[in-house]
Amino acid sequence: MMEVIYLYDGSFEGFLCCIFESYANREPPSDITPEEDACPTLFQTRHIKTDKSHADRVLRKIALLSGEAVILLRRGFLTCLEHREMYLYRLTAKLLREGPGFLRNLADETLLPVLKAVRHLEGEAQLLRGFVRFSEYSGILGGEIEPKNRVLPLLRSHFCSRFPNERFFLYDRTHREALFYASGKAVIAPLEQFEAVAPDETEAAFRRLWKRFYDTVAIKERENLRCRQTHMPKRYWGTMTEFQGEDYFIAGQTPRLEHRGPGLPSV
Amino acid sequence: MELLEKLTILSDAAKYDAACTSSGARRGYKEGFIGNTSTSAMGCCHSFSADGRCVTLLKVLLSNQCAYDCKYCVNRRSNDTPRASFTPEELAELTIAFYRRNYIEGLFLSSGVLRNPDHTMELMIRALQILRETYRFNGYIHAKAIPGAAPELVERLGLLADRLSVNIELPSEAGLKSLAPDKTKGAILAPMRQIQTRGVQCKEELVKYRHAPKFAPAGQSTQLIVGATADSDLRILRLTQGLYDRYRLKRVFFSAYVPVVAHSLLPSRDTKPPLLREHRLYQADWLLRFYGFRAEELLDEGTPDFNPLVDPKCSWALAHLEFFPVEVNTADYEALLRVPGIGVVSAKRILVSRRAGTLRTEDLKKLGVVMKRAQYFLTCRGQMSEGLRFTPESLLRNLIAAEQPGLPGTRMEQLSLFGA
């Protein structure tokens, strides 16, 4: 049989259409990858067009077998698991072949990698519910994060119900998209670049107050840096107020939020 | 005095309070209000300080001026330390500003006894009222009830806060008499009883009327200081058990005593805080709350203190080898929880997974079981892990080695504390 790689538009619907095509043509793809990430290869490639009706048919079928699987696919698609499309494809294939019974065996080899990736995603979202830091820019709250997984869809409802009367945005540097919220409506949209502006005096003062509070609550006699790092890995520190350099706390200074991610805009 | 300076003094004075949780309250979106509480059962940590403790709430005192003279406390009347007080307005504004920036999950308000308990509580209530009513704050509030304050004030505080706490601090009445002469056991227990009774009553009202006012919906907690007095682990754990049983507390916190003041009745100032002992007590506390253990199973008059070398659950297992091995494919949930290396999460996963088919030894690790510990205590389809050989002595050695890297401080340093 010919080995074929499916290319799709990178959307969840597009991915579902890959499953549809594979079943329509009775060919298991050797890989499924977004068009923009595709590198030249000796294998045959096929561009899969996204067709909403196809996507709906696949999703309906899966939902019929297991509602849990739908959640797993949706969440799994947001994870940073490498070749996640193939893991999700295999999960779907097994579900269609054997029915939903294996989803209860949490050690199942097809299920486990997806389960682990989803736990990682949910864990990261849970951490970020706390680690997100907003700054006030003339009445609008803005923040930046640099997560491994696409957590914005998981953070949306939390922050929208927390700040229903605010206008805010949260920029995901890794995936270059942002969550925007104003007057009861939230959207997640791609955003190539974002540069934070200098804080005004009020904002700078609150940053200083927070930094001081953070430094003061630590009990010197109990210092335990390793424990801190276990609970709050260093990769989150770059976007947290309490770990910024001195400039960050001075009004009018261009903030120097640390940038660590690949190919991110420099300040 | 500048706000920055006030915040420094008043957070420095509050930092010895261990409680910093935001779980247990269910405040969702509320029209016209700001804030919600985390839907997660664990609450939400916003940062971790250099001592590895979670920072969830803006933990401050309203004032560190105090009429009392408790010997172990930094804020005691006779201690020469800078004093400050927030005005209720200042504090409310600061809380909202921090909350909007997602620095915090809410406020943890405590206070020194300013003039008298009633006056202090009135100021605290005023601050919380401004937060809830003027700023329409719908986030988490943990407030400390001041022992000796009028019951009406505790009532008002409970209607504003999510959680109330009254700190017992010293685990025995003798300790209280010698170290905290202004406090009595009765003055501490009275508000605790009131909070409990009122909580039960409120739940009954809520069944009848959907909009009945909620009294401290996240329950109450307390704190015990470990290492300031000569009380044994057994005594502390029994007290803890009693508080869960009789007062329905949500949490009992332990705070390793940090010598902040020199006094002949207290450990000397160069004593290191007994962190390992505190750690063991927390482990035991988890066993009481989630694993179905009772205090008397873990310690008795013969062994009144925890073994510093192995955790309480392993200790129990080693003393009850007749209970093991447990067969993972058939054992009930309670029996699974008794196996060292199996926790609440992995026990539940085992229950789910074994319905889909018989479990094999290699599946257990995938379910999150810590096999380094668990392998000695379980069988899978009637068999132990292949090639596993051990004697009671090597078992103990291996269990000690399995826990070692995760313990606070180095082992030698900690051990010396028990000799002291």
Task: Describe the protein in words.
The complex is a heterodimer of chains A (267) and B (420). Chain A contains eight helices and eight strands; from the N terminus they run βαββααααββαβββαα. Chain A has 267 residues and is of the alpha/beta class. The radius of gyration of chain A is 22 Å and the shape is elongated. Chain B has a six-stranded parallel β-sheet. The radius of gyration of chain B is 23 Å and the shape is globular. Mean pLDDT of chain B is 90; it is low at 410-420.
**Which residues of chain A form runs of ≥5 with pLDDT under 50?**
260-267
The description of the largest β-sheet of chain B is: 6 strands, parallel
Compute the separation of the termini of chain A in Å: 51 Å
| Secondary structure tally, helices of chain A | 8
The level of helicity of chain B is 40-55%
Strand adjacency order, main sheet of chain B:
3-4-5-6-7-8
Q: Helicity range of the residues of chain A?
A: 40-55%
Q: What's the alpha carbon Rg of chain A, rounded to whole Å?
A: 22 Å
Quick one: overall form of chain B? globular
Rounded to an integer, what's the Rg of chain B over CA atoms?
A: 23 Å
Order of helices and strands of chain A: EHEEHHHHEEHEEEHH
Please tag this protein with its features:
heterodimer, A: 267 residues, alpha/beta, 3-stranded parallel β-sheet, elongated, B: 420 residues, two-stranded antiparallel ribbon, 16 helices, 9% strand, globular, disordered C terminus
